[in-house]
């Protein structure tokens, strides 16, 4: 009996033990995955180097979801790299993007273009794996480009603090006081620095810059250097130095003396490097100047010998004479006035005010007496709006921008004592187009003059060649409206206010175009601009957005023409909807409801106005590709004005009936 019980007891104990083991194994098999621990901080600056960015986040967080992974979002804000770190459920979109690779232990950034914003995102699996963000896979031999979904090639890394005071006295070697490191927006940009005095105090400027554009009016020639060798610029104010280089953060140390002795942190004997980089550049410059001179002489001879094919000889003559003009009003055209003595300008009254600047009528003294002066317009920017001033000045700096239907630019000045930036241009006493149309009714001839010259100005901006055949960079205005069009004394228009304009270089990437943002005035924005769906692969789409805006201005002009028999009180496009329109309300009207300003039936009573209204409708078509070009509108005006004779008796009668005979133009 005892043996039986002993045997049963041992069997029972074994069974119990077996059950416990099975239960324990089952419990282990069903234990949930350990939750991830990730860096989790709101947006803050990151410390970036050539192939990686290290977040400054000190907060670690246990993720709430069992499937969460570590993620990071990378972007730029005012030139500074910003990073946000967080836990993330990979089944959900991250900033609108569904991540397809999050199993790696490395957080490899990939580029995403979302409407007008450019983001770089990554996700990974591993404890705090989102602290270090890689710009390419660790085993990659070559940095991938922006087209590679698994990473992107980083542009140059520079010190970027814009303008700040410094203790540097322009001798020996100076350290910049800038503590902000920035990855340049444009892959072609290099590191630059400038040193000068402001009210006797030295200031230093550090930033990224595209060497294809002038820097403080000077084209960079030494940007392939490995060190930033300061050079004094002749012809500018005393003690003005600039330098450029193309190594990581090379504009942090500025050399005001010959870099021949080894210095800590700098390559030994960089002089041969400088010679190798500078001498070929000098030879290339000489060759290019020689080629340009030969081309210029040959081109001038061709212009004199024969009429340029397809170009109006009178228009070409105007432009050529403008090139050769040497009087005091244009001697400083398309330049920055670097003289120690500023131009003798006396401000008169304010004639306009915008978001970034105020415009004054002013007197530019021409002689020793107060009676000898030229009326000019002065656009004054506060020091805080340096970027806006610089953008507009660089647009004006293009010599090929000059055109009879573009505001004539005289010079720009940095008024240090007043902490103001000035743009000095021609002055037109008739004011802007909106003010003019509010006060005047125009006839058929006035409509053709105003509308035709407006179209010619826009066509010149958009063209990649001047009327005489010289190459130029196409420009889009991006804020075309009647307030930004001036009326000249001969009742022709000229375009002004290029603060939001963009130069369309052929080498611009979609990323660079996306960074240009959604700009303009909501009332005049094209549907694709309102909806942030510009075709970034096609720079022509930016021109067609201008054409849409131009159509609204043409509608404003036409609505005040007496030739239609019932010219109305001036009203802005969509003026009957709301006084102050915003982007969201315009989306409802322009995109959802496809609304456009009313074209009254009376416009069909005049053959010319009827043809023009058809052109306007083509210009504001909802589909950008269906719109006609600005050059096509110029040709339409030429055909309409020459083929259609305004019924003089009808115009005269309508003017008499309205009591505006003295306002008829």
Automatic annotation (TrEMBL):
Leader sequence residues: 1-27
Domain Protein kinase: 345-645
Chief localization: membrane
Required cofactor(s): Mg(2+); Mn(2+)
Binding site for ATP: 379
Pfam families noted in UniProt: ecTbetaR2, PK_Tyr_Ser-Thr
Keywords carried by this UniProt record: ATP-binding, Cell membrane, Disulfide bond, Glycoprotein, Kinase, Magnesium, Manganese, Membrane, Metal-binding, Nucleotide-binding, Receptor, Serine/threonine-protein kinase, Signal, Transferase, Transmembrane, Transmembrane helix
CDD domains: STKc_TGFbR2_like (cd14055), TFP_LU_ECD_TGFR2 (cd23538)
Localization terms from the record: Cell membrane
GO cellular component: plasma membrane; receptor complex
Name of the featured protein: TGF-beta receptor type-2
Gene coding for it: LOC109111096
């Amino acid at each position: 009996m005892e043996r039986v019980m002993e045997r049963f007891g041992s069997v029972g104990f074994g069974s119990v033990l077996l059950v416990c083991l099975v239960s324990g194994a089952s419990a282990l098999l069903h234990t949930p995955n350990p939750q991830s621990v990730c860096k989790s901080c709101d947006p803050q600056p990151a410390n970036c180097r050539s192939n990686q960015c290290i977040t400054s986040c000190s907060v670690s967080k246990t993720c709430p979801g069992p499937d969460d992974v570590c993620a990071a979002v990378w972007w730029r804000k005012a030139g500074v790299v910003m990073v946000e770190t967080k836990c993330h459920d990979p089944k959900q979109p991250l900033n609108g993007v569904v991540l397809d690779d999050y199993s790696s232990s490395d957080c490899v950034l990939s580029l995403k273009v979302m409407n007008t914003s450019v983001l770089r995102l990554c996700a990974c699996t591993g404890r705090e794996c989102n602290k270090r963000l890689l710009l390419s896979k660790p085993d990659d031999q070559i940095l991938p480009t922006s087209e590679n979904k698994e990473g992107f090639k980083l542009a140059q890394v520079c010190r970027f603090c814009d303008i700040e005071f410094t203790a540097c006295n322009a001798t020996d070697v100076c350290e910049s006081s800038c503590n902000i490191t920035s990855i340049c927006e444009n892959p072609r940009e290099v590191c630059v620095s400038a040193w000068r005095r402001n009210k006797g105090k030295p200031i230093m400027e550090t930033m990224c810059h595209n060497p294809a554009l002038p820097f403080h009016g000077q084209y960079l020639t030494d940007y392939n250097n490995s060190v930033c060798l300061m050079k004094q610029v002749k012809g500018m104010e005393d003690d003005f130095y600039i330098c450029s280089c193309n190594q990581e953060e090379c504009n942090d140390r500025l050399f005001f003396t010959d870099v021949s002795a080894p210095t800590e942190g700098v390559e030994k004997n960089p002089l041969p490097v400088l010679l190798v980089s500078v001498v070929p550049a000098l030879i290339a410059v000489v060759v290019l100047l020689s080629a340009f001179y030969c081309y210029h002489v040959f081109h001038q001879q061709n212009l004199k010998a024969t009429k340029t094919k397809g170009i109006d000889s009178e228009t070409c003559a105007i432009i050529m004479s403008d090139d050769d003009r040497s009087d005091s009003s244009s001697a400083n055209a398309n330049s920055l006035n670097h003289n120690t003595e500023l131009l003798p300008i006396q401000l008169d009254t304010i004639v306009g005010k915008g978001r970034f600047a105020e415009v004054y009528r002013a007197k530019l003294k021409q002689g020793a007496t107060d009676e000898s002066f030229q009326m000019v317009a002065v656009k004054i920017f506060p020091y805080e709006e340096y970027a806006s001033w610089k953008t507009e000045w660089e647009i004006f700096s293009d010599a090929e921008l000059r055109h009879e239907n573009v505001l004539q630019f005289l010079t720009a000045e940095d008024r240090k004592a007043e902490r103001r930036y000035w743009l000095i241009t021609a002055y037109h006493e008739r004011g802007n187009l909106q003010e003019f149309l509010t006060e005047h009714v125009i006839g058929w001839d006035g409509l053709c003059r105003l509308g035709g010259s407006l179209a010619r100005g826009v066509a010149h901006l958009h063209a990649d060649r001047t009327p005489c055949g010289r190459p130029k960079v196409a420009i889009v205005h991006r804020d075309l409206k009647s307030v930004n069009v001036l009326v000249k004394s001969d009742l022709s228009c000229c375009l002004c206010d290029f603060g939001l304009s963009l130069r369309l270089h052929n080498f611009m990437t979609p990323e660079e175009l996306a960074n240009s943002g959604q700009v303009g005035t909501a009332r005049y924005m094209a549907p694709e601009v309102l909806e942030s769906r510009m075709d970034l692969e096609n720079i022509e789409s930016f021109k067609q957005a201008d054409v849409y805006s131009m159509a609204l201005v043409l509608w404003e002009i036409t609505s005040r023409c007496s030739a239609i028999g019932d010219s109305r009180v001036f009203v802005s496009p969509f003026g009957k909807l709301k006084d102050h329109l915003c982007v969201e309300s315009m989306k409802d009207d322009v995109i959802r409801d496809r609304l456009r300003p009313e074209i009254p039936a009376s416009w069909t009573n005049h053959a010319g106005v009827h043809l023009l209204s058809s052109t306007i409708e083509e210009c504001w078509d909802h589909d950008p590709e269906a719109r006609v070009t600005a050059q096509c509108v110029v040709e339409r005006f030429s055909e309409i004005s020459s083929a259609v004779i305004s019924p003089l008796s009808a115009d005269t009668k309508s003017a008499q009936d309205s009591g505006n005979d003295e306002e008829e133009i």
